[in-house]
């Protein structure tokens, strides 16, 4: 039997086990459950922060029939034809229960034409169908859909709480670990809880959490990058990143540099200079002919800022 995936084993399945950013959000969700229904919803937030999980929790708590749920990953299926063929066909039949639910995961990948078509479907079948849209970038959702959905932003967990939740899983599984190794894994993947849990599970040898030695995979070279930044060797870190990261991962690296300013800056002036360098590098990222040179130059500016 295949080893059970921890990301599924420890996925929250009820409101009581789901971690909200504050009590007001918990109360809002509980009110929907108490009322026995939901409005059209737009869940936004970073990858791995629990948007789809919350949608599934809601459907489970509301006891929506399985036959009344349509799940679509819009990163793969995102055109007008998907709206016409799948969603319209699903929506035009009567629900088994009180209402149907269309869960559109990664809805920010739906084309503008597809989103415009979706608006019409939402209006036409509003009496019997509820739509839950999840997205990483709400600015890519057209205003007409924003106005028809109640927005709900899923904030990332506090870094300390995030680390504590990963540690809790390791303790529950009886895995030995040291805080330095755990911190490197968390910093490489934060705020993506899903990715962090998967990385931790794949980094266990003889029931001990270890740092992966194979630097081919993204999660593995990122841990090497974290260690170099912790050591304050930004020159080696720059060369290491350029040697191991793919060009399509560069944009995420700018975000990582921003989220981890605390490990390589020591005062407010350094912090501010590095923020400016990261901002300038990210702006130029989509404009330059060679993104590798641009990232390398950004890291040179950061190294100079912290001298």
The helical percent reads 40-55%
The overall number of domains is 2
Write out the CATH superfamily name of the largest domain. Answer: P-loop containing nucleotide triphosphate hydrolases
Terminus-to-terminus distance: 54 Å
Strand order of the largest sheet: 2-3-4-1-5
Q: Rg, please?
A: 22 Å
Count of separate DSSP helical elements: 14
Largest sheet: 5 strands, parallel
Model description:
With 307 residues, the protein is an alpha/beta fold. It folds into 2 domains: 148 residues, P-loop containing nucleotide triphosphate hydrolases (Rossmann fold, 3-Layer(aba) Sandwich); 147 residues, no CATH class. Helices cover 52% and strands 10% of the residues. The chain is built from 14 helices and 7 strands. The strands form 2 sheets. A 5-stranded parallel sheet has the order 2-3-4-1-5, with helices on both faces. Strands 6-7 form a two-stranded antiparallel sheet. α5 links the parallel β3 and β4. α4 packs parallel to α5, α8 crosses α10 and α12 packs antiparallel against α13. The protein is globular. The mean pLDDT is 90.
Q: What is the secondary structure topology, with strand pairs?
A:
Blueprint: H1 6-9, H2 23-35, E1 41-44, H3 51-61, E2 69-73, H4 80-91, E3 100-105, H5 112-124, E4 129-135, H6 143-148, E5 150-153, H7 159-172, H8 179-189, H9 193-202, E6 204-205, E7 208-209, H10 218-230, H11 234-244, H12 250-259, H13 268-285, H14 291-305
Parallel strand pairs: 1-4, 1-5, 2-3, 3-4
Antiparallel strand pairs: 6-7
